[in-house]
Amino acid sequence: MPELPEVESVARALRQNLAGRRLTGLEAPFAGVLDQPLRTTRRALLDKRLVDVHRRGKYMIASFARDGGDDPAHLMIHLRMTGQIFILDGYRPDKHVHVSFDFEGLPVHYRDVRKFGRLTLVEDPLAPAALAHVGPDMLAVRWPEWRRRVGSRTAPIKAVLLDQGVASGLGNIYVDECLFLAGVRPTTPAAALDDATLREILRRARQVLRLAIDHGGTTFLNFTDFYGKPGNFRRQLRVYGRAGEPCRACGGALAKTTVAGRTSVYCPDCQV
DNA sequence: ACACGCGCCTGATCGC
DNA sequence: TGCGATCAGGCGCGTG
Known about the structure:
By secondary structure, the protein is of the alpha+beta class. It folds into 2 domains: about 5-130, N-terminal domain of MutM-like DNA repair proteins (Alpha-Beta Barrel), CATH 3.20.190; about 145-265, Helicase, Ruva Protein, domain 3. It is built from 6 helices and 10 strands; from the N terminus they run αβαβββββββααααββ. It has helices at about 5-20, 40-45, 145-150, 155-160, 170-180, 195-215; strands at about 25, 50-55, 60-65, 75-80, 85, 95-105, 105-110, 120, 255-260, 260-265. The radius of gyration is 20 Å and the shape is globular. The chain binds a DNA duplex through loops.
């Protein structure tokens, strides 16, 4: 599932491949992934050039404008569980392609098997009202602010890390990886952790996110990058998807439990 | 303010 | 071409 690193990979590719290109076509075989009617979305975006792409957590915001910067419009994209955006030579859209963009002859597709993702027109590309409740990006937030936002939450630390209102970007995969690296069990109440441990968790979260970005993200279900290629981070995973397998640090069997409604894998010996 | 459960979706996998 | 049940999970929303 696309988390911060996978979204970053797509955002970079959009910038590199489409910046300056004009949107000349927009079709939506399944308009249900659009928050506004197709005609509204077309009216806002067609004939404008893609000028920038911002990312906050797992949200991308693509900005369009006419030549000279007039009449800007912004499309916020969230891939949720199975959303993909890609450009592939000779690709013939299957039944899961819900939106197709045409950039002066360059076709770009939005594909989403579970239809959880959303494409939303927003007014403000940097601080859209729709993201008012979403916290700062996990890679950008400073320790004091993050500490303040974590507060004295009694929920398990994993639930707090998954809460995009605290800081945005972590999902189930990287939370488990981060907590393994920090040596903390996902079930531990956040309020029971001292500042040194919380600081270590934040440091490890950033470390694993950056490393995953460098490896092009993780492909578990069906994430592919902009060019249709899977990410390379999967073989770096220490715990996610490895319940029952030996811990890469101590050799003991990894345990599985449910935290915040999500499957969670940890090492009973290395994580206390 | 915070914690928790549900619904949205479809494909893969499992049990019989 | 067996089929129904279960699981996977991000997020918005309703409830307590």
